[in-house]
Structures are given as structure tokens and as C-alpha cells.
Design brief:
Elements (H helix, E strand, L loop, with lengths): L6 E4 L1 H5 L8 H9 L3 H16 L5 H11 L8 H14 L6 H11 L3 E6 L6 H14 L2 E4 H4 L6 H11 L6 E5 L2 H9 L3 E4 L3 H15 L6
Parallel strand pairs: 1-2, 1-4, 2-3, 4-5
Length: 216
């Protein structure tokens, strides 16, 4: 019989939370400094991994993005603190469907894990949005705590060890394709998260594909 899935692992941003709400941070940066959302995202790709690993704080991240784009004056602490807080608040909107599904999965006997890239300074926001989900989780791996960042292999190996289930018995949902690929390379089953309805279908297909039988 095929190996069953015993644990379901969830990313936070865009999975437990809604995708980033963009009605404050990016308009402010464009109006104040003429820096487009595309340019900010390019800065994210360059520097965000260091913030997620807690090697930079968010104020330092935004300083680097601004300086990379020629902004070197007026970078006062109050401005950088505002940008950091606006960034965090943009990720602090709960996806109401995901916690309900996680509760169902727990009732069906699955182990639940949370595997997320976030700096430790985001943890109060994380807890405000998803305190109940964190309480349901059997294991939690946060990049900033361990200084490991998806999609690197080491963070997936740590997740498997922490939840106590081999990688090939875990199914991981993330909203970024590179993280899905990283999970698969680490031996996980993984799927791009586009919503709970589609994720349910992935798991339902896995019943037959993986020989899933909770009563076995």
C-alpha cells in the first residue's frame, strides 16, 4: 500500500492569512519617493530573505530598499518604523476559511504544522491573526527564530524533525511556487495554495493516490 499522508503543513502569508493588502504601503512609497510597487518587490527579492532570517530588522530592510533607489535623506527612525509597521499590517488579515479547514483536519486525525518565513518582530501580528491556529498546530517552524528560510532544504528538514513525521508523509501548502518546489526537493508532497476549495481537492485526490485511510 502507498505511504499515507499523516501531516499537513501550512504557510502563513497568503494561506493562513489573506494575500498582502496593498492599499497603504505601496501608494505611500510611490507618492512620497516615486518608487513603484515593482521596484519595492525587486528590493524584497534582494533583501527580504535577510529580514526573514532575522539578520536585518524591517527598518533596516526598508532603509536598504530606499537607499538602493537613491533615497538617502530623511530616513529618520519614525519614517522607517512607519514603513515596517505598514508592511506588517498589510500581512495581518486572516483568511477565515483556512482555520476552519485546519480544525476539520485535526478532527480527522492529521498532525498540523506551520512553516513560515517571517521575522520574529512579526510574531505579535501573527499571534493576533492566528492565535487559534497556532494553538492547534502540533509543530511550528518560523524562519526568524531558526535563521533558516524557505525554500532552503534545511528548514524543511527541521519541519519534518519537529513534527516527528518523515517528509514523504507530509503535505505542504504554500502560495509561492519556489517554496513548493523547495518542499518537493526536500521529499515533501507539496501544492501551490490558491484557496481552501482547491486545497481540499488536492488532498482528496491524494486519498486515492497515496492510499490514505485514516481507519487503517
Amino acid at each position: 500500500m502507498s505511504t499515507p499522508i499523516r501531516g499537513i503543513i501550512f504557510d502563513y502569508g497568503g494561506v493562513i492569512s489573506l494575500p498582502q493588502v496593498k492599499d497603504e504601503l505601496y501608494p505611500f512609497l510611490e507618492k512620497r519617493f516615486g518608487i513603484s510597487e515593482k521596484t519595492v518587490l525587486e528590493g524584497y527579492r534582494k533583501h527580504r530573505w535577510a529580514a526573514d532570517a532575522d539578520l536585518l530588522n524591517m527598518e533596516q530592510l526598508y532603509r536598504k530598499i530606499l537607499e538602493d533607489n537613491g533615497v538617502t535623506r530623511c530616513l529618520i527612525p519614525a519614517l522607517l518604523s512607519y514603513l515596517a509597521d505598514a508592511d506588517f499590517r498589510s500581512w495581518a488579515h486572516r483568511n477565515p476559511e483556512t482555520p476552519e479547514w485546519i480544525r476539520e483536519l485535526k478532527g480527522q486525525g492529521y498532525k498540523i504544522g506551520i512553516l513560515t518565513n517571517m521575522p520574529t518582530s512579526f510574531l505579535p501580528y501573527f499571534d493576533a491573526v492566528a492565535h487559534d491556529v497556532r494553538a492547534m498546530a502540533d509543530a511550528e517552524v518560523v524562519s526568524g527564530i531558526h535563521h533558516l528560510v524557505k525554500p532552503d532544504r534545511e528548514i524543511f528538514d527541521l519541519m519534518s524533525r519537529t513534527i516527528g513525521i518523515p517528509a514523504h508523509e507530509l503535505l505542504f501548502f504554500d502560495d509561492l511556487e519556489r517554496n513548493v518546489q523547495g518542499a518537493e526537493e526536500a521529499g515533501f508532497h507539496a501544492s501551490l495554495f490558491t484557496g481552501v476549495a482547491a486545497a481540499r481537492q488536492v488532498l482528496a485526490a491524494g486519498y486515492e493516490l497515496l492510499g490514505k485511510d485514516l481507519n487503517a
